[in-house]
Amino acid sequence: MSPSNIKILMADDDPEDLELMEEHILSLEPTAKLDKFMDGLSAYKYLHTRPDNELPTLIVLDYNMPGLNGSQLLSSLNTAERYASIPKIILSSSNTAKFIEECLKNGATEYIVKPDSMKELQGLAKKLVSLAAQKH
After folding, report:
1. Under 8 Å between Cβ of 71 and 98
2. For the whole prediction, is pTM greater than 0.85?
3. pLDDT digits (tens, 9 = 90+) for 18-28
4. What is the DSSP annotation of the chain?
5. Is pLDDT at 1 greater than 50 in this prediction?
6. Which of 18, 91, 92, 135 could pair with 63 as two cysteines, CB 3.0-4.6 Å apart?
7. What angle do CA 64, 88, 15 make, to 5 degrees?
8. Sheet holding 33-37, edge to edge
9. Percent over 70 (pLDDT), the chain
């Protein structure tokens, strides 16, 4: 998959977190397409209106969001085969074992605690771009 085919869906109710992540991803891969949402329900509705050839190559969700949290959204995506090959990452400020276990059980590829330094954020952006660029 060429870098220009990178499509990342990000849902997080913290606009600053979305902006920082977008900034770092685009600094690594300027042609990446990011679709950003402030809650899980908007992300869910968007995904269900996309044709298969327009689905994201990576889904990144915050755990704590209004309406539909990251774990609930993962669970709802499990019901449709068309999302099965898309890596799904939960990014959360919480490292609560119960949340981690729940998200992994509901289909998260990985559960990552949000970085607290710019260096860690850059590393996370590299990891996300790499995951989004893999063939599925």
Report:
1. no
2. yes
3. 999 999 999 99
4. --GGG-EEEEE-S-HHHHHHHHHHHHHH-TT-EEEEESSHHHHHHHHHHS-GGGS-SEEEEESS-SSS-HHHHHHHHTT-GGGTTS-EEEEES---HHHHHHHHHTT-SEEEEPPSSHHHHHHHHHHHHHHHHS--
5. no
6. 92
7. 40
8. 33-37, 7-11, 58-62, 88-92, 110-113
9. 96
Q: What are 34's two structure tokens? A: 């990011």
For residue 46 the two structure tokens come to 């968007």
Range of the domain at 114: 3-133
- CA 47-78-33 angle, to 5 degrees, is 30
Beta bridge partners of 111: 90
Total count of domains within the chain: 1
What is the dihedral sign for C-alpha 115, 17, 64, 126? negative
Q: For 33-59, what is each residue's pLDDT tens digit?
A: 999 999 999 999 999 999 999 999 999
CATH of the domain at 96: 3.40.50.2300
